[in-house]
Amino acid sequence: MTDTLPAIELVGIVKSFTSHGEIVQAVKGVDMKIAEGEFFSMLGPSGCGKTTTMRMIAGFDEPTAGEVYLHGNNVTGVPPNKRDVNMVFQSYALFPHMSVFENIAFGLNRKGIAKDEVTRRVGEMLDIVDLGGREKRKPKELSGGQQQRVALARALVNKPRALLLDEPLAALDLKLRQAMQVELKRIQREVGITFVFVTHDQGEALTMSDRIAVMSNGVVEQLGTPREIYERPATKFVAGFIGTSNLLSGTVSEVIDGHAVIAYGPEERVLVAVQNGQVIAGSEVELTVRPEKMELSANAPHGTDCAVRGTVTEVVYLGTSTNYNVRTSSGADVVVFTQNATSADDLAVRGDSIWLSWEPRHSYAIGAPS
Amino acid sequence: MSTLTPQAPVKAQKPRGKLGDRLLFGYTWAVIIWLCLPIGVMILFGFNDYHGKYNTQWHGFTLKWYQHAFALPEVNNAMKASLIIAVISTVLATALGTLIGLALGRYRFKGQGFTNLVQFAAISSPEIVMGMSLLAFFVQLGFPLGYVTIIIAHVMFSLSFVAVTVRSRVLTLDRSVEEAAKDLGAGGWTTFRLVTLPMIMPGVTAGALLSFAISIDDFVVTNFTAGTVTTFPVDIYGLQGRGGIPAQVNVMGTFIFVGGLLLAAINALASRRRDA
Ligand SMILES: Nc1ncnc2c1ncn2[C@@H]1O[C@H](COP(=O)(O)OP(=O)(O)OP(=O)(O)O)[C@@H](O)[C@H]1O
Ligand SMILES: [Mg+2]
């Protein structure tokens, strides 16, 4: 960590709403630091407080408790028109009575920038979002993806210190969405502005972000790089929310070399790294293993420290890969993904007794501090 | 496959029988004629070449009443009074009603339900009751009757129409559009002027047109609150009592009607352009 100021810093943010006489806590104590130039995502299911958090960064809502800092300045209580961040709304919120040009020029005109400078910068922006020649159109005369790009251009043209995007791709169909994901990344690289991106699509967050904050129920469950979050989910919620995760549990029989050993039966045992002193023999642990890390074989494997027996309950052929649903001898239902590159035949059929094995470094204890 | 029997083309099923269609057609036109006939008669008798006092029988076509449209000072003055009152009360009612409509559509506040109720009470209460109460009110206060009292009265009943049309427009707005304006650096007033007002404009113009229309032809409330001021409808009523309405009244009535049509057409065109 360098000691440069974070672009955005939230300290102990709480937000409560009163609705019908009841107090609802939408955000329950969020801390995060977003670095300059970072592509930062907030990911979480509907209603977890993503929009509320973002609205407090932009200044549309004030936190019930806590502070918002932009580049080291406390902006809590500062109105949105005085904050050097811009927002792209989920509904785009384009001005329906203005042309594309007027929409994009709106922010520059508020700053009193000279007319030809405005024309030049809007023109530049139109090129970046690939909308050259459409500046006279009204928002209604544009497709969804084009409107989305106008909204993006309208915010970016002001060269804000940070850009806030609230599910900007949610209204687009899959193909356009994927195209816009690539586009957004390119634009972010080109302009070098901090992007804070809200989404409830984990694939989108994983592919686009430098770092992700996974939120649930008004709190940040985990904050880390996509790889950290995918491979080392810190909580059960994260494991379940990001990708497919296999959840195993059991009683620790012994702790060797910083690894807890769970013995399920003869030759069946699972190792998982634990922090010293955190887990002792006899305690219950839960761990996750990603489906693609597990190997499926007919016979007892050699040389792997994690192996359990199971019965195949379902085989799903997917072309490049095959998914096996397996019930382990301890009664856990797990999924295994195998690539179909080498073997022409299925490894097993429904009802087969098989072995699952993996390396201990792919087991992650849940709830362990990272 | 050759064994398949060719399917008869499916006929588009009409929702109603032939008789029902005809009845509906006839009924529609009956209503239209019923609504337009009095206006048609008024316009027609502005071209009536009659002599004497009573413009009640058709004598032949003439344009002389249009040539001498403004030959009767009494009618002219009444028309002028009506226009002054209509313009001022429309401006006031539109400004105040727009603000009320915005508040009602946008915010939750104490007494909101009551305000809504009062709006609809003002729209639906009988004019005679409103006129009488206003008269009693002004007399109690010792307020001299005249232009000011007429305008106060007209603003009072027009305001609700503007508030209601603006409110229904405000309810359809996406709030984040105004938030976007603020986000892009616009203050409260700039946001209102550049974003909110243009978006609620159709509601505002509809309310203003309505205000103008009900102000210019109001008789009952005006008559109670007028004092010595004579507006166009009040004057016509008086002329009728003094024997015969001159054809100039038909001419001016036609002007008002055509003016109303023009305004409505302009409004429709403008909103079509906006929505295009
Ligand atoms: N103005 C408000 N008044 C009352 N409750 C609110 C208000 N705004 C948000 N909430 C509540 O706060 C919680 C979080 O809402 P928020 O809009 O931040 O969710 P979100 O994570 O953005 O969800 P989504 O993915 O559906 O957009 C929800 O339970 C919501 O009902
Ligand atoms: Mg949201």
Question: What is this entry, summarized?
Answer:
The complex is a heterodimer of chains A (370) and B (276). With 370 residues, chain A is an alpha+beta fold.
What does this structure look like?
The complex is a heterodimer of chains A (370) and B (276). By secondary structure, chain A is of the alpha+beta class. Chain A has 2 domains: 8-240, P-loop containing nucleotide triphosphate hydrolases (Rossmann fold), CATH 3.40.50.300; 245-365, Beta Barrel (OB fold (Dihydrolipoamide Acetyltransferase, E2P)). Chain A has 8 helices and 21 strands. Chain A has helices spanning 50-58, 100-110, 115-128, 144-156, 174-191, 202-208, 226-231, 236-241; strands at residues 8-19, 22-34, 39-43, 65-70, 73-74, 85-88, 162-166, 194-199, 211-216, 219-224, 246-251, 254-256, 259-265, 268-273, 284-289, 295-297, 306-317, 321-328, 333-339, 353-358, 364-365. Chain A has a 6-stranded mixed sheet with strand order 6-7-8-3-9-10, sandwiched between helices. In chain A, strands 16-20-17-18-19 form a 5-stranded antiparallel sheet, with no helix packed on it. In chain A, a hairpin with a 2-residue loop joins strand 4 (65-70) and strand 5 (73-74). The longest helix of chain A is centred in the middle third of the chain and has 18 residues, at 174-191. The two termini of chain A are 17 Å apart. By secondary structure, chain B is mostly helical. Chain B is 73% helix and 0% strand. Chain B is built from 11 helices and no strands. Chain B has helices at residues 18-45, 64-67, 73-106, 112-124, 127-141, 147-171, 175-183, 188-216, 220-225, 232-241, 247-275. Chain B is globular, with a radius of gyration of 25 Å. The model of chain B is unreliable at 1-6 (pLDDT under 50). The A-B interface holds A 58, 60, 79-81, 86-87, 89-91, 93-97, 106-107, 110-111, 138, 140, 154-155, 158 and B 174, 176-177, 179-187, 190, 194-195, 198-199, 274-276. Bound molecules: adenosine-5'-triphosphate and magnesium ion. The site of adenosine-5'-triphosphate (ATP) has 13 residues of chain A, from strand 1, strand 2 and helix 1.
